[in-house]
Structure formats: structure tokens, C-alpha cells
Design goal:
about 450 residues, alpha/beta, two-stranded antiparallel sheet, 12 helices, 12 strands, globular
Length: about 450
């Protein structure tokens, strides 16, 4: 993994002179914010040159709704009478739902996504969950991002995906909007973590102390294991500097909300359109842990406002990329667990299990809610929770196979078979470095 500091002043005194040891030591000294803090280990050097064969799959954008997203509020099972019995206060009234079908409807705060839903570019999958559910945020998030229960694997599922796809570029996998990389990207595949494109810089770099240039020069003749990380850091700084220098105006009249999520999605669009080799982006959007004050379906209530932020950012992203750009992008949401079916006494809902995922993209077969709905009757619940009838990994697996060119799904999700919902059109041809080297990729028609 590769990280770089996103602040302009680390508070350290400037050294009187620069040496190879000094530059490396200075970068490492800033800890988790250091550009080289995670670039070490056997075999890493061979994976940091840009791929010779261009990646031809979708850019996968993973939006982590951390905190326990309430899928029962976002994708409302209004056709299930037990929903309103369980949620007499916070249940979303049928007359306020938008889009959907006879069973499901979308929360009114998702109105900015209505056109995407009706155009077939947005879908939902309900009653998804983890195979070994936990009500602990820490444990559930760790398992969600590792995604290999019952195994000794300690890498993240996105890292394993990038490895199978032959990722080698500095921008192959990027965590956007956070200073530290997601655990889903933990492992040997190259990745980058940045708060924002415009603030990305090597710690200590300034007009007077050109750390990035010095880093490249000092490691030019160093052993490959040391030179490759230095080169990768320098390339990353050069690329983000160039993107910042040219500025960015969203296309097609897109207006991103001035929120953390809006800014992160704007940067994902910049990287996607900047031809930097982006294969996967991870964006964290938290604060979904609404034990209290989840509220009713009106503006000013916690769930309403948070969903409105989500919808505005996704709508702007889709508008910015346009039909052509979105034809090569798939966005999916995931969360560590859902909320309990019954509301509590604080106008909220406690930790649960079964949940909903959203899927956005030009190849999505949308305007539909997928999944095996188990029902909300008391005898259909599992410990008071919506039963999870679909493994979230199976959903992602279908996307990876049909849109990203992953042929060895077991290498990402051991023991998991991809869902067969038909969530997306298959790319007519997918060629990746890994596929070219190992075996031909299955093709489909679109």
C-alpha cells in the first residue's frame, strides 16, 4: 500500500542537507501519513511498474456505508404488512415512496436518483448480509473488508481482486477521502490513499525542499525493492500535481454537494476521467449508526438528510461522467450490517443483520429490486433481524466476473459462487494483464 501526507506542514524542522537515508527516514517518521510507510516487503518491487496490457474492465467504485446502513429505510418493503407493524413511527409511508414496484419503494430523500432508476441504471439488492453476522462494528467491518471467513487470509478482498487483475500502477486502487487506506485494500497489490487530489503531497515537500524530486534522484540507482516504492511515490505526486494544476470543472452541468462525500466522489470522477489507470476506488461514508433519531421521512431528520447527501453525490457523479463514462463504471454500496426490523423507543433502530445494497452504472440492469425476500413476519426473522438470504460477496462476485474480468472468483472470495441475478450486462470483451498471462477470459454479449 502507498500513502502520502495530505497536510502542508508536518511541523518538523528542515534538515540541513538531504541524503538517501535522510529522505527515507523523514518519510517514514511521519507514521501513517508517510508516503513510504507501507511500501516494504518481499516481491513488492516487481508490482509497481505500470501494466503493459491496459485494463479493459469497469472501474469499480465501492461506497462503504459504515455504521450499519438501514436498508429497510432506503429500500422500503412497503408491500410487506409487517414492515409498518414493526415501524409505526419511523416507517416510510407508502404515499411518500418514489420509484420501486408493488413490493418495494425508495425513500423520498433518494429523489435525485429517480431518473437513474427509471432509466435502468440503478438497482437494489435486498436481504443481503454476511455469512457469520456480528453486531460488533469492529468485528463486522473487519470481516466485511477481509471477506474470507473460515480462512487464514488476512488480505482485503479488493487487494485480492487487484492482484488477480494484474494491477501494477500506483493508481490501480485508491482510497479517496480518507488519510488511511481501507482494510479492503490491505495486502501486496499497489494502492494509494488520499484525502483529496488537490491536497496530496509528499510530507515535507515545498518549493524550498523538493522532496519528491529528491526522492526519485536519490533512489535512481538503489536496489529495486527500494527504488520502485520511491518511483511510485514520485509518480503519484507528479500525477496529482498535474491534475491539480489543470483544475477541474464537472461536465454536463453536474453540481457536487459541498460535503465530504460530494468532494470524494468528485475526485473519483477526476481520477476516472484522468486516465491514471484507476481500476478500483474505495470511498467511506459513515455515520449510519442511528440508534437514536433516525427520524421520520422528512427533511431535517437524520436518515432523510444522510440519504439526501448520498443521492446528491451519486447523481452528480453519474451526470459528470455522462453516458459514455458510466458505461465503464460500476458503483456499489455495502455496509457491515443492517438495522433491526423493529424500531426502538428512541425513534431509531439497533444493530441488525439483513440489509440492502445499491448498484449504479451504465451496464446495470436497473429499475428493479433483486434478491430473495424472506418476509418480516415474526417467524421469518432471525433473532429479530431481517434474514440475509444472499451473501454480499456473491453480489460483488457477479460484478467482478461480468464487468471486471475476474475469472478465478475463489481467489477473491474463497468458497463463494457468484449470484445469478443478472444484475449487469456482461462486457463483450474483457482483457486484463492477469487474463492474458493465465487463461482466456469468458466473453458475453451486451
Amino acid at each position: 500500500m502507498m500513502m502520502a501526507k495530505n497536510t502542508s506542514d508536518c511541523g518538523c524542522a528542515q534538515p540541513p542537507s538531504l541524503s538517501r537515508r535522510g529522505v527515507l527516514g523523514r518519510a517514514l517518521a511521519v507514521g501513517a501519513g508517510g508516503a513510504l510507510a507501507s511500501l516494504s516487503g518481499e516481491g513488492l518491487a516487481t508490482r509497481l511498474a505500470f501494466a503493459a496490457t491496459p485494463y479493459a474492465g469497469d472501474t469499480l467504485v465501492v461506497l462503504s456505508l459504515r455504521g450499519g446502513f438501514d436498508g429497510l429505510s432506503a429500500v422500503v418493503p412497503a408491500g410487506d404488512p409487517d414492515y409498518y407493524r414493526a415501524r409505526p413511527t419511523i416507517g416510510v409511508p407508502k404515499e411518500r415512496l418514489i420509484a420501486g414496484d408493488s413490493m418495494f419503494g425508495l425513500h423520498p430523500a433518494l429523489a435525485p436518483l429517480r431518473e437513474l432508476w427509471q432509466a435502468g441504471n440503478l438497482a437494489a439488492i435486498h436481504a443481503v448480509g454476511q455469512p457469520n453476522p456480528s453486531r460488533s462494528h469492529f468485528q463486522a467491518m473487519e470481516e466485511l473488508e477481509r471477506a474470507a471467513p473460515g480462512t487464514s487470509l488476512r488480505t482485503g478482498w479488493l487487494d485480492r481482486t487487484l492482484g488477480l487483475l494484474g494491477a501494477t500502477g500506483s493508481f490501480s486502487g485508491v482510497s479517496v477521502g480518507r488519510p488511511l487506506p481501507s482494510r479492503a485494500l490491505s495486502g501486496p497489490a499497489p494502492d494509494l490513499s488520499l484525502n483529496s487530489i488537490d491536497a496530496f503531497k509528499l510530507s515535507g515537500d515545498s518549493p524550498d525542499t523538493r522532496m519528491a524530486a529528491a526522492l526519485r534522484d536519490l533512489y535512481t540507482n538503489a536496489p529495486a525493492m527500494m527504488a520502485a516504492p520511491a518511483r511510485a511515490v514520485s509518480d503519484a505526486v507528479t500525477t496529482t500535481t498535474a491534475l491539480s494544476a489543470t483544475g477541474y470543472v464537472p461536465a454536463n452541468g453536474a453540481v457536487y454537494p459541498e460535503t465530504a462525500l460530494g468532494k470524494a466522489m468528485r475526485d473519483v470522477a477526476r481520477l476516472t476521467k484522468g486516465d491514471v489507470g484507476l481500476m478500483a476506488a474505495y470511498v467511506d461514508f459513515g455515520d449510519w449508526d442511528m440508534h437514536q433519531g433516525l427520524g421520520t421521512a422528512v427533511a431535517g431528520q437524520r436518515m432523510y438528510d444522510h440519504l439526501a447527501d448520498l443521492a446528491a453525490a451519486l447523481s452528480a457523479f453519474a451526470t459528470d461522467l455522462g453516458q459514455t463514462g458510466m458505461s465503464n463504471v460500476t458503483v456499489l454500496t455495502m455496509s457491515e450490517f443492517g438495522r433491526r426490523v423493529h424500531e426502538n423507543g428512541s425513534m431509531g433502530a439497533d444493530h441488525g443483520n439483513g440489509n440492502a445494497m445499491l448498484l449504479l452504472g451504465g451496464a446495470v440492469r436497473g429499475n428493479k429490486v433483486y434478491g430473495d425476500w424472506p418476509g418480516l413476519a415474526a417467524n421469518r426473522l432471525v433473532a429479530g433481524d431481517l434474514a440475509a438470504t444472499t451473501d454480499y460477496r456473491a453480489v460483488i462476485g457477479e460484478i467482478l466476473q461480468r464487468r471486471c474480468g475476474v475469472t478465478d472468483l475463489a481467489g477473491v472470495f474463497p468458497g463463494v459462487k457468484a449470484s445469478a441475478f443478472g444484475l449487469v450486462d456482461a462486457r463483450p470483451q474483457i482483457a486484463t494483464p492477469a487474463a492474458v498471462k493465465k487463461k482466456p477470459t469468458a466473453t458475453g454479449s451486451r
